[in-house]
Amino acid sequence: MQIIQPHYHGIARTAQDYERMAMSGVVAVCEPAFWAGYDRRHPETFIDYFAQISEFEPTRAASFGIKHFCWVAVNPKEAENPELTQEVLRLMPEFFNKPNCLGVGETGLHKSTRNEIDSLEAHVDMAMKHGQLVLIHTPHLADKAHGTKTVLEVLAGMDVDPDRIWIDHVEEQTIESVLDAGYWAGMTLYPVTKCSPRRAVDILEKYPTERLLVNSSADWGPSDPFTLQESIMEFRRRGHSLQEAVEIFHNNPCRFLGQNPKWDIKPITIGEQ
Amino acid sequence: MLSPQETLETYYLEARRDLLEIAAFLDRYDRAAERDGGKAEDESKRDSMLEALSLLAKSEHPKANRAEQLLELFAKIN
Fold this sequence. Notes:
- The complex is a heterodimer.
- Chain A is an alpha/beta fold.
- Chain A has a single domain, classed as Metal-dependent hydrolases (TIM Barrel), CATH 3.20.20.
- Helices cover 41% and strands 15% of the residues of chain A.
- In chain A, strands 1-2-3-4-5-6-7-8 form an 8-stranded parallel beta sheet.
- Chain A is globular, with a radius of gyration of 17 Å.
- Chain A starts with a strand and ends in a 16-residue tail after the last helix.
- The mean pLDDT of chain A is 97.
- The mean pLDDT of chain B is 96.
- The radius of gyration of chain B is 16 Å and the shape is flat.
- Chain B contains 3 helices and no strands.
- By secondary structure, chain B is mainly α.
């Protein structure tokens, strides 16, 4: 089965992960800009990072036959430094011209502070002005419900196209409000701290799937790129057809990401075996 | 050996995850029953889960032997 990994932090992972993903059917990964585990101090550090994910990382993925796409943003944790954020935002548009850059992400909220909200608004505003897609991070654990509500309130006050916005890391307590507002919703499958493969399939069975994305967001913390395949296996063993799986784990990413013409992978239809 | 606080800090998130999986399992069962218009013929596995949760909800376990009690409970299930 052909699989798309819509949220993946390749710079934090090994070549063996690419190799194993390729062997399991992954044909493309999308790498949003994220927190490095420490707060960067210089705008130039972000620019070098954006160059890494827009120029070098595609070559690592390509050596295993995987297409690599990226997103650029100042992540919410580092949005606490407004001067840095503003300077990076000023320099960011040049990366919208990179052949693999799909949009602005992951912006969003972490602790839902004033600085984070200002940064989120500035990122979304820039994306809309430049015709870019948006990937929004929602907070972890105890901060998730409040942070997601705040994200929706911020977006409701802006002139945005919900079709072009993906709100990520939804769980049972947040998915309904995101879908009701017309956005795409992403489920991130972590071993401990986010959704799990089985719970994700429960959600797929409970809600309309047309605007749902599933990802592993594998990074430098406790995470696993193969939680995505775990959830595909769980989905299939509950009796859902191969085409239904393809619709969710391949075609939905194509439909959302394909709004950017740089995304050149089309939805597929396969015969049931 | 870990202190009481270290024990909580070390294992809280994993225990939280495991409880969410149990909650999702019970929700999954309820949705299946609703979808199929009826309960399972034998609900003893579900009932054992609810009994186990009720046992865990008791605040005092002087022997700190909750796992042992659950194993004895689950041993009754085929």
